[in-house]
Structure formats: structure tokens, C-alpha cells
Amino acid sequence: MNLRDFEYLIALDEFRHFGQAAQSCEVSQPTLSTQLKKLEDELGTPLIERSGRNMQLTRVGQEVVARARKVVEQVAEMRSIARHASDPRSGEIRVGCFPTLNPYLLPHAMPALKKSLPSLSVLVVEEKTQTLEDMLDRGELDAIIVGTPVVRSGIDVLPLFREDFLFAGPAHDPEMSSDDKLLVSDLEGEELLLLSEGHCLRDQALQVCKTSKASEQVNYRATSLETLRHMVVSGAGHTLMPKLAVTPPVTPNPGLVLKEFADPAPHRDVMLAWRSGSVYREVFPQLAEVLRNSVADIVTLL
Q1: Which one is the CATH code of 88-301: 3.40.190.290, 3.40.50.300, 3.40.50.1010, 3.30.70.20?
Q2: Where are the domains of the chain?
Q3: Among 79, 96, 100, 197, which is 20 to 30 Å from 57 by CA?
């Protein structure tokens, strides 16, 4: 029993014709028929019902071909893994990113990645930070982009950039009419709209509240940054918005007014993390550099 026999059986199941199956496998029909007969003999049971020009798989044959497909797929994956290990800049890597950054970073990053690493396919998964860290630990992701420190053994981290927060309020609010930059201390007494539990942006905003003696508006908690944006426009209150989330190609909202903070502005530090033993560890510094440069005119590089 060998892999090639499985490929012959799969082809026969697809074409239901010995000649066409043989042609697809680039062998002669007698060769394919002989090998499949040997496979039947080895398993000790018929896999194929032969009746003139018509053929179909037996019940056992159907079960065997289903498993044969999985074996062939797994072998292809093993070959792909080995190939990517020898050339980590080809193939596919799985990168996780948190929801309040992912939709706003990708429009900048993906064109730059395709240009700088054309043979590398990047599959992006969006989840909250704790879920991303768990998926990285389980090997379900190759790297994660996070806005909070990842401190644990076996994980390598590269800083990417520092993203400032902007103060956001509704256009009809007289408090938003001045062009002057704010001081963090100006937030004292403010009740800010924040995201719900589990978002790292909530934790970062709460830290700003603690520093500035602001507080959280307890009546509302948004489930997403877009919901938070609409709540502000509706006049429900003020909030902090990450700079990438309000920078083109994000469409400006005329009902939303943004004010910058004077230095040192409240911010979040974004970083790339991966398992130290990853087969892609050599390509991650280049990936990090591409991510940094793609937003270099918006954020502060680290």
C-alpha cells in the first residue's frame, strides 16, 4: 500500500472511468488497473464493482477513498510545511490581530505586504487579545499583533509602533469648537464612553481615565469601535479614538469632531509576537518592518 495507490483510487472515484482516471494520473490504464487490484488484494476485499464500462466503488471502497483523501491531503500539508521551512517567505502564515486595530491597519498593510513579500500569503484572524494569545500558545496562529505586552517564556516580541489617541466628540458640542490641543489633565471630570469588557482599548482608556481623573460613563458600553463612533455622533458623550481608526481610507464622519492631545499624548504601543521556535521566525522581523513602514506617516515607529 502506497500513496500513489491512494491517488489512483481517488482519481477513479472522481472520473468513474478507468481510462480518464489513468490519464489524469499520467499512467497507462493497465498500470492503474493493476495497482488498484493489488490494493484490493492487500486489503482483502473488493473496492471496485466492475461491470463492463460501468464502475462504482463498493461500500468499503467508498469508506477507503474517503480516508485516502485525508491521507493525501495530510501528506501534501507535510510537504508544504517542509517547503516553507526551507523557504519561510513562501506559503501561508496565520496572523491574529485585535478588533480595534485590524480593520484600520489592513488597508495600509496588505498592499505593502504583497509588494515586499509577494510569495507569502498572510491569513488574518480577528479576535480579542486574550483569545489571540491562547491561539498562539495552541499553535493555531503563527504570530499575533497586540496592543498589550506579551510577557511569557517561549515568546519573542518586536515593537511595531505607537498609536496616539484622539479626543472625539459630536460636531454640535461647543466643547469641540476650539482647535487647541488638549492636555491629558483637561479630561478631569469627563465621563468617557468606553468599549465593553475584553477589549484592550477599554483597558487602555481606563488607564487614561485614571491618570487624568476622568471616569467611565456607566450607562453605555459599546461592543465595537464603530458602535462607539456612532454613539458619540448621536450625542451620547465623548470618547478616545485610536488615530488609525479615524485616518483615511476610513471615511470621515461629519458628525464627529476630533481633537489632538499635546505631548505626551495618551497612546497604545502595538507589537508583533510569535513563538520562539516558529519555522517562520526568520521572516517575522521583515514582516514587522513592512507593517511599521505601511503606517509610518500616521503613527510613531518604535
Answers
A1: 3.40.190.290
A2: 3-82, 88-301
A3: 79
Among 96, 104, 105, 108, which residue's Cα sits nearest to residue 273?
96
Angle at 38 between CA 42 and CA 43, to 5 degrees: 25
Cα-flanking dihedrals φ and ψ of residue 196, to 5°? -75, 175
Q: Place 75 in a pLDDT band, splitting at 50, 70 and 90.
A: confident
Q: What is the pLDDT of residue 54?
A: 72
The total number of residues shown for the chain amounts to 302
Question: Sign of torsion, CA 169 101 296 186?
Answer: positive
Q: What do you get for the CA distance between the two ends of the chain, in Å?
A: 56
Q: How far apart are CA 84 and CA 235, in angstroms?
A: 52
Q: What is the DSSP string of 166-213?
A: EEEEETT-GGG---SPBPGGGGTT-EEEEEPTT-HHHHHHHHHHHHHT
